[in-house]
Amino acid sequence: MTKWKEDEKPEKYGILVNAGHKFRGDIIVTLYEKEFGLYPYYHNFSDLTSAVNGGIPQRANLSAHLSKVRSDIEKEIPNKDFDGLAIIDYEEWRPLWEHNWYTKRIYRNASLAYVEEQYKKTGKALTNGDELAKQEFNQAAIKRPNALWGFYGMPFCNYNAGKNGTVGCGEVFEEFNNRLQPPHVEATAFYPSIYLPSRNSGRTGCLYVTSVLQEAKRCAENLSIPIFTFNGIEYFPLNLLIHIMPK
């Protein structure tokens, strides 16, 4: 079910695919945090000792990260004239402090611990550590290491959008996306996600997709950059597909 037959040519339906149906190729390349550069994250959201590459962006080695990014690009996109879609899929943490909630709260806690550690070294008294940690996280996350092409899932939208019967990502997410516009984050395309694997209501799903696309259009309006959506075309679960296929 996951492989194309030799006589199946998606190109004849106007679908662009990588040569040989490779995951990374001449049309589209998606690069993930654990294999692209030296992206800082926590392997275990409940364990502050599980830091990888420093854990938080404040501790990231920017020069080492960019050096590996360059070598990774040469490896994964060897064609210097590549003009396809290049997506960076960084999802372990969100680039603004206040949006790291639930399991991602570890990045707030680690940022606060980092600030306290720095103050202990200087012997200065720390006041309002939360605000300082927030400022440092935001500055580091926006300026390093995120600085290439387009990012999966951006612009962001409230995952509950559409559930109240209306269209819109909400003021909180609009303000969030405004803060992630150039010159803070450089992007030559937007790659919002409109996956709908768990939405039971057709109307709710439609309102959600409309909300995401509306927000992406709003953000791209003054930038003159294209929008490409990530969609799920799989059947969930696979058994449903098996039942409707001819024997």
Question: What is this structure's SSE topology?
Answer:
Layout lengths: L27 E5 L8 E2 L8 E2 L9 H15 L8 E5 L16 H17 L6 H15 L6 E2 L19 H8 L23 H19 L17 H7 L3
Parallel strand pairs: 1-4, 4-5
Antiparallel strand pairs: 2-3
Helix pairs in contact: 2-3
* CATH fold descriptor: TIM Barrel
The total beta strand count reads 5
Provide the low-confidence segments as ranges. Answer: 143-148
The chain-level mean pLDDT equals: 80
Helix-strand makeup class:
mainly alpha
Assigned CATH superfamily: Aldolase class I
* Strand residues, percent: 5-15%
Name the strands of the widest sheet in spatial order: 1-4-5
Distance between the termini: 15 Å
- Report the helical percentage: 25-40%
What does the radius of gyration come to? 21 Å
Name the shape in a single word: globular
Summarize the main sheet. 3 strands, parallel
The tally of structural domains comes to 1
CATH architecture: Alpha-Beta Barrel
Counting DSSP H or I runs of 4 or more residues, the number of helices is 6
Spell the H/E element sequence.
EEEHEHHEHHH
Text of the CATH class: Alpha Beta
Family: Belongs to the glycosyl hydrolase 56 family.
Catalytic activity: Random hydrolysis of (1->4)-linkages between N-acetyl-beta-D-glucosamine and D-glucuronate residues in hyaluronate
Pfam families: Glyco_hydro_56 (PF01630)
EC number: 3.2.1.35
